[in-house]
């Protein structure tokens, strides 16, 4: 089957129509929609499947025609200002559309089970389809104005989905934080777009670099001003893709449902920033100072995200900081000119991170059956452990995602990450060192997550978990259907043990339900165990595990070994038919593996350290790992510092709260006081004076003619008196 590129408009239109139909049905017929809500979900999934099939067909055509097509319609037909709308079809566009649709389908199938009992089930699918439609619209946009419109729609959808459970204060605050932080970046992006139009007179992405070249030849462009414009454009991806210092919204965005976390971190919101840089890369590549700043912002973000993820207790938050770190890799690669490596890593990371987040959602969904609906407990990795025995499919599929993100061959992220590290060393030894250290930290924290979650014994019913959530030793199991069940988390602990003394000294012990150290009075521990998720959720996990295993080998030859500035629309498909074939006694695959010995050694070192600390953690050993007094040596102090740094988010949120939030609140209060006391006071005083004057005059309006005649005669007498009795000076005539 063959489809012309002019039908590419079907791809973003399908989820947009599905979202509009689902939203209207839920709004106009809410009761009827609840009855066939799974049909609405099926319709949304089917529409995205159609979009995926069209993307695959058009992508296959690219192997034959190797062309770029642009279809435009005039929106504002004026001679001075002509704005067009349309869509652009090229290899990058089609690759991104395949990525968005495949990940979106997996998330939608997964959500049918995850959100089944949620009252906002239909609304959730309407938001999901609108989210994917917005991302696909930005991917196919041929000019910056159209791209900016869909860019803002992506931000709006993220606000709606992060705050989906808006009745929870934490979710509402997280959505507002994400929205406000992204407004900063979007404002810079808008200024950059307007400045580009002011200089070049065009919004068309394909014309910008050529016009800059022509204007530069005649000396019309100031290099400093041009670099400022590029950095303003970069400010949009800094916020959208969670780069330092506008990364603070990303971990809080975990307040939304887990399927949304997978979609945001894999194929929509954070990917939009990387795609924007890649789309205007030919323009950015003309300004080395801006590229230098971009590369170091990405490098700093990669290292910062890795350190913040190293000791997180929240499963989703650890993966969120991991996303921040990997996005830093991509931005750094774009800054050093490794264009294809960045896009390759965007694709490999998207599938890996979607698999990891959906796996985390499966774990959380199962843990909630034990500890109740409480994110502080159901997402706390120290309440987990041994889940591979209880959830074999989830544990088995989570491992390839962990290995991939750790950079272990032949899984997906190894090929892209290793090339970025090699290019970083060639560009700058300092940047190469940062990317290499980040690779080791990535392997460490990813296997820390895996060991704490899936290895050892299940710890949710054990006493040692008290330390990690700093709460009462009694866990309240809140049923999803209402009602509570009290169960003791104290088990097999002696009153004279060091851990018991720790509980007593730190007031973590409450005995109002009986003595937890007395076998006669303490409640019996619950033996509830987690169970494997149902077919819809496990099917999505298995489906995503396949590209995580295979896509690296399929796309490894897309990665270039050059940092020259050129358009890679066609070169993206010029790769060997067999990556194992040898040329001049050199094997392509062998060359990659040999060059990756350094990064692999660092990754295996991180895995070894993680296994040494967390690999054999059992219920009786967890105390020695966490509660053990810190030895006064350099390594222990460094580990303690990194742990404190990680748990406190690098203190960045704290300083932002002091420097920005508190100052903004103070200024707002001053302005509010000035408005109430001065502005409103003046207006209110004017109104009050008019009212009092009116009341005074009202008593003079009696309606009696004799009174009015008296006032008239009195007025005439006063006028005559003033004219003839009072001596007014008369000015002389000239």
Automatic annotation (TrEMBL):
The chain crosses the membrane at residues 6-29, 41-65, 85-110, 122-141, 147-167, 179-200, 220-239, 260-281, 287-306, 327-348, 393-412, 424-447, 535-559, 592-614, 707-726. Signal peptide: none annotated. It is an enzyme of class 7 (translocase). This is NAD(P)H-quinone oxidoreductase subunit 5, chloroplastic. NDH shuttles electrons from NAD(P)H:plastoquinone, via FMN and iron-sulfur (Fe-S) centers, to quinones in the photosynthetic chain and possibly in a chloroplast respiratory chain. The immediate electron acceptor for the enzyme in this species is believed to be plastoquinone. Couples the redox reaction to proton translocation, and thus conserves the redox energy in a proton gradient. One of its GO terms (biological process) is electron transport coupled proton transport. Residues 141-441 form the NADH:quinone oxidoreductase/Mrp antiporter transmembrane domain. Belongs to the complex I subunit 5 family. GO terms for molecular function: NADH dehydrogenase (ubiquinone) activity; NADH dehydrogenase activity; quinone binding. It is a multi-pass membrane protein. InterPro entries: NADH_UbQ_OxRdtase_chlpt_su5_C, NADHpl_OxRdtase_5_subgr, ND/Mrp_TM, NU5C-like, Proton_antipo_N. NDH is composed of at least 16 different subunits, 5 of which are encoded in the nucleus. Its EC number is 7.1.1.-. GO terms for cellular component: chloroplast thylakoid membrane. Residues 448-675 form the NADH:ubiquinone/plastoquinone oxidoreductase chloroplast chain 5 C-terminal domain. Its main location: plastid.
